[in-house]
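REVIEWER CHECKLIST
Item 1: Sequence provided? yes
Item 2: Single chain? yes
Item 3: Sequence as submitted:
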Amino acid sequence: MNKKWWHDKVAYQIYPKSFLDSNGDGIGDLRGIISKLDYLKELGIDIIWLSPIYKSPFVDQGYDIADYYAIAKEFGTMEDFDELLAEAKKRDMYIIMDLVINHCSSQHEWFQKALAEPYGEYADYFYFREGKNGNPPTNYRSYFGGSCWEPVPGTDLYYLHMFAKEQPDLNWENPKLRQELYQMVNWWLEKGLAGFRIDAIINIKKNLEFPDFEPDGNDGLAACWKMIESADGIGEFLNDLKENTFRKYDAFTVGEVFNMKEGELSSFIGEDGYFSTIFDFNAHSLSNGEHGWYDAPPIDFKKWRETVINSQLEAQGCGFEANIIENHDEPRGVSRFLPEYAKTPSGAKMLGTVNILLRGIPFIYQGQEIGMQNAVWNSLDEFNDINTIDQYHLAKDAGLTDKDVLKVCEKMSRDNARTPMQWSSGENAGFTTGTPWLKVNDNYPEINVLRQDKDRDSVLNYYRRLLKTRKSPEYKEVFTYGEFIPAYEDTETIMSYYRQTEHQKILIAANFGKEPVCLNLETPIRRVILSNQKNLPKPEQFLKLESCEVIVAECVED
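Item 4: Structure as written out by the authors:
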């Protein structure tokens, strides 16, 4: 494998709106991010991914972009962004941005021109199609509910939107549009950006026949992703994108990839793949409901363990995946992946250790490093997320009571990850001196950065030690390029694996169960590098793990 500059890096996702507000308007901003670069450096972060900061009406929290070349005034100015780039560079840190090019905002100049001339040049930047007998062209349901087709005023045409109606899909079949997008990508890379996280990228390739599918809900519609799965030829678009942009700058790119076909992984992240890496969402998919959040199953430990292991084994045959516990589109990992008895500092440390030492690029989401959890929501009015509101009504239509519907949203809402970052036990968790745009989690007096910074045994200080261990000269090679080898798979509650090179072997072992477990050591231990509960003596023949205990140990060489 050719070594790349990003292979040994640790990434951190910032959701700017909720990170830190510097001017008291209740919305996080770029100056707030700049003020916390030293905090992130001390944590052990190399790459910072910013969720969208472009000009937007914020129908879908900035994933509806009105101008790809402008910073939203809520976040600051282009001068602020340039300062962020410069300050990050001083600290040997890299900035990547969200690249949202499957769709844009309905307020974008291109779409406004398309509406003005529905049969003109800019209409072909989108998917304008004639309806059928006064109905939409097909029976697709958007990701946010309702039809994927919206009428074009004054015509019998409809435009396609796989997300909100304010997010019209861009027509990648149009070479002129593609060149416009490539020009924009290169403009940012010329500015000094290190790369991109690429949003919903599989959706850019449509089945242009737009066939109907068998309805899969009471609304008579079918999930739009079925059309995407029926399309072929995504690779041509992705390779064209890479060759015209990323490759020229040796950019780091991480794709948000769903609906990948079997056997395609190496095309995406192999030696000459479309992207540097893609997120591994397989574990998150375990709690996907058949119809929505209301019938989402709980995470089963054994199924989770099997899924993580299989993902690791598949990826190491071709490239690096990006490993996550949570992000802006998911509930908090501690609340999602751990049973009630494990939703503790020890549990948060255990889950973080298992994830961050996997083979691949670790991505930490803001607040994960202090063990932030899902919030308690008292009514639908407290939510902001467009997807949550859709899922609320979907659950209501399925017959759930108001109380049960709220519990479903409380468990699965994306707003759980979007509550403001908890910096202190002061007013609004130290996030803002004004009124926060979204409620602050009620547990901020107990879970916050300032409190944990002073506590050597806190989740925050454990994460600092964990990342320091991963990146230390002594262990960087094994944790970056070492093989992933699963261990103790026949146990009921143990998640364990080795990271191994020719000269080094590290055991990671965690007990997700409620009772202690004693393991027969397969390989003698030279020393324990890290433990989330106590400083262990070197175990001889047996390793005893308490509930929610994880250890990282260097093995005696074979």
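Item 5: Key structural point noted by reviewer: The chain is about 30% helix and 15% strand.
Item 6: Recommendation: ____
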